[in-house]
Amino acid sequence: FYVYKHIMPYMYMSPLNITEDKISTFFLIGIPGMEHVHIWIAIPICFIYIIAALGNSTILLIIKTEPSLHEPMYYFLSMLAFSDLCLSFSSLPTMLRIFLFNAPGISVDACIAQEFFIHTFTAMESSVLVIMSFDRFIAIRNPLRYSSILTNVRVMQIGMGFAIRCFIFILPFPITLKRLRYCKKNLLSYSYCLHQDIMKLACSDNRVNIIYGFFIAILSMLDFSVIAMSYVLILKTVLGIASHQERLKALNTCVSHICAVLIFYMPIISLSIVHRFAKHGSPLIRILIANIFLLVPPLMNPIVYCVKTRQIREKVLGKLRLKKT
């Protein structure tokens, strides 16, 4: 009913308005069947965005202002917090417009721009998780040489290198989407814009987009494979430690990162499984998983690192005590 009432009138305009030169607006969807409670769904969504913004900003501030945290592990954590913060802000405009203001329309250019930022910061977060897995491997394998291997200059070079890699790999997405013609369909599948979703609306040849999108998907799975391989090497190193207490201590330093990896990759894997094996199922499950993919990691990563990382937790609690006094 929501689609029929609010979106279908735009989709069945006069022929002059659906030609390839006149399609200028896409329409996003919220949660099908729950349109009447979108305003109430907006409350927890706003709460999630606020907590995610405060949590990641706090981690960035703590790491910047505390000299004792100026170490490779915390520099990489600040990169993760920055990626989460930008990922939240990338999806925020359309999510709030749909759920809070009941405005599903978005211009083609704005949609393509949002798609670029979402994919860029998603790729950046994946890259940071790869870097952090190597960081944990070096810290456990060569603890005495850790500081000499990961110097501040090298950390900056690694971070900049991966950021440039993400930008270069994602840049073809908006360029190729902009060259496509959109002349008939304009209804997207989610509450935000994604490359694979936009290219399906094109009425011109989108084979380049399909091939390049598949290439980027392989790179994402390659990142996950590298993380898995890093933990195989970490586990092998830990099992070679004689003391049981030292084994637990070494593994405990990896818990936060393992949680961050699971929080980030589980929705992606789940969404891929749903697309592959439940194509004709309810779209509600697919939409909920897609929303979890963008909402949960920025929310949970600061919480996990504050709870499981003693240095971060102590600094945050110390700041809170100072404010109270």
Automatic annotation (TrEMBL):
Compartments, record wording: Cell membrane; Membrane
Keyword RNA-binding: no
GO MF terms held by the record: G protein-coupled receptor activity; olfactory receptor activity
Gene Ontology CC, one term: plasma membrane
Entries under Pfam families matching the protein: 7tm_4 (PF13853)
Record domain G-protein coupled receptors family 1 profile: where: 55-305
UniProtKB keywords: Cell membrane, G-protein coupled receptor, Membrane, Olfaction, Receptor, Sensory transduction, Transducer, Transmembrane, Transmembrane helix
This protein's record includes keyword Manganese: no
Membrane topology of this protein: Multi-pass membrane protein
Transmembrane segments: 37-62, 74-96, 116-134, 155-175, 210-234, 255-278, 284-307
GO BP of this protein: cellular response to lipid
Superkingdom assignment: Eukaryota
PANTHER family in the cross-refs: OLFACTORY RECEPTOR 51A7, OLFACTORY RECEPTOR 56B1-RELATED
Family listed: Belongs to the G-protein coupled receptor 1 family.
Protein name per the record: Olfactory receptor
